[in-house]
Design brief:
CATH architecture of the largest domain: 3-Layer(aba) Sandwich
Number of domains: 3
Number of strands: 16
Oligomer: single chain
CATH superfamily of the largest domain: P-loop containing nucleotide triphosphate hydrolases
Largest sheet: 5 strands, parallel
Strand content: 5-15%
Helix content: 40-55%
Bound molecules: adenosine-5'-triphosphate, magnesium ion
Length: about 450
């Protein structure tokens, strides 16, 4: 049953509204001013608030803002008297759903409430479905994680997969998962069953790379004893993945540019153009705009490749993925090495979550693999972690008495980190019971809920 809070200082209007709306079976609550309204909102979660803007002298807009702090998704319909329409418009700008003028007709108010609640339940349903499809998408893409940053990446993957010939440029630090992203784009595209051919542009000298990419005719050069089909031809109908594109020789860059423009290749020593139908995905962990400035990368090629850019953020910028990745690699390697290792102790998880992971997911994977080889215990403890990880004392990060480093610090970020850490700890202690967590932290439930949402600490379902 939907819960509605009616905030109006006139008892007559409140009762009138309650009478009208009770016909539709809502659970109704009344408040005659901001103070009782805020008190009750801390305790109850409302689906809708009907808010009179002329609450005596107190500003209704101020109350609206406070209600939104308690529940950022709160659905509010404003009731306005004569002459306050402008304030109502201001309320709409602040995120109120709609307004209705006094005097109102019973039918009108019933309809507006019904539509607002329907819209809200649709939005919830959409959010739920989106979350579910995101999980499925991550699975299809073979990517493990739950951070909003990673979800954004897979949403881009899904989008571009459908544009089967669009060129993609994937950037990101080493070990972030660029190759995984490239494969996912291919697999999720209509070309998924066609070949996916990858080549590392940094691993071959210019002439070899050239004949690998374009192939050659018999006798094209001294060692060309036979005709060779190049990767672009081999991948026809599918995808070519050019890894470390930043390492590609300038003269080969010109040729690649031509292929992207004409969709034709010519084998070395050949005299015929061959049409090719491939999608090109390129990846790099270097800063191409720097390379362009230093004249190591062609600007025109950059724009050709950068049609659909995807940036894979470093792991330290999506720490929410760390626990799931640990689980994932732990179960993989403990099975592979036949080890009883099952879980990560809380202390160890704290250290792992704070570490800066310069080698990103690859570093995390290698670390778990090493631990599985070296240990036969069930739980990963801080002692098993590499020095660079465990050397970081957790207290340093959260201790209030820590000193300000010479380069200064970002106070808000430090405080937010501390707050998030403490709430996460409290959630663990209470098995994620919100009421108990609020009590443990001496927070109002509404305030806690707001923070949980802010830090993505709890799933809404
Ligand atoms: N989200 C993820 N889920 C599961 N495994 C991942 C994820 N991201 C990366 N990996 C794994 O981490 C390792 C490194 O990923 P990948 O090779 O794709 O990185 P990269 O960005 O191409 O690195 P480089 O720039 O060094 O080539 C691989 O074993 C990959 O499977
Ligand atoms: Mg790679």
């Amino acid at each position: 049953m939907d819960k509605i809070l009616i905030v109006d200082d006139e008892t007559f209007i409140r009762e009138n509204l309650e009478r009208i709306l009770s016909e539709d079976g809502y659970q109704l609550y009344g408040a005659e001013g901001p103070i009782p309204a805020l008190q009750i909102s801390e305790q109850e979660e409302f689906d809708l608030v009907l808010l009179d803007l002329n609450l005596g002298t107190a500003s209704g807009l101020d109350l609206l803002k406070k209600l939104q702090t308690i529940d950022p998704n709160i659905l509010v319909i404003i009731i306005t008297g004569y002459g306050t329409v402008e304030t109502a418009v201001q309320a709409l700008k602040m995120g109120a759903y709609d307004y209705i003028k006094k005097p109102f007709k019973a039918d009108a108010i019933r309809l507006i409430v019904k539509l607002a609640l329907e819209r809200r339940s649709l939005q919830r349903e959409i959010r739920r479905l989106r979350r579910r499809s995101e999980t499925a998408l991550l699975e299809q893409a073979n990517m493990v994680g739950s951070s909003s940053e990673l979800l954004q990446v897979v949403r881009q993957v899904e989008d571009v997969a459908q544009h089967e010939t669009a060129t993609v440029l994937i950037t990101g630090e080493s070990g972030t998962g660029k190759e995984l992203v490239a494969r996912a784009i291919h697999n999720l595209s209509p070309r998924g069953k066609q070949p996916f051919i990858e080549i590392n542009c940094g691993s071959l000298p210019f002439s070899l790379l050239e004949s690998e990419l374009f192939g050659h005719e018999k006798g094209a050069f001294t060692d060309a004893h036979n005709r060779k089909i190049g990767l672009f031809e081999e991948a026809n109908g599918g995808t070519v993945f050019l890894d470390e594109i930043g390492e590609m020789d300038m003269s080969l860059q010109v040729k690649l540019l031509r292929v992207l423009e004409d969709r034709k290749i010519r084998r070395l020593g050949g005299n015929r153009n061959i049409d090719i139908d491939v999608r090109v995905i390129a990846a790099t962990n270097c800063d191409l705009s720097e390379a362009i400035k230093e004249k190591n990368f062609r600007e025109d090629l950059f724009y050709r490749l950068n049609v659909f850019p995807i940036f894979v953020p470093p792991l330290r910028e999506r720490r929410d993925d760390i626990p799931l990745l640990l689980d994932h690699f732990l179960s993989r390697y403990s099975r592979e090495f036949n080890r009883p290792l099952r879980e990560v102790s809380r202390d160890a998880l704290g250290l792992l979550s704070r570490y800066h992971w310069p080698g990103n997911v690859r570093e995390l994977r290698n670390m778990v693999e090493r631990i599985c080889i070296m240990h036969r215990d069930e739980v990963i403890t801080p002692q098993m972690l590499p020095r660079e990880v465990s050397g970081l004392e957790p207290r340093q990060q959260t201790d209030f008495s820590c000193t300000i480093p010479p380069e200064g610090l970002c106070l808000e970020a430090v405080v937010e980190n501390l707050e998030k850490e403490l709430i996460a700890q409290a959630l663990t202690l209470t098995s994620a019971n919100v009421a108990k967590t609020a009590r443990l932290l001496n927070l109002a439930r509404g305030t806690l809920r707001y923070k949980l949402e802010k830090y993505h600490l709890l799933d809404e379902d």
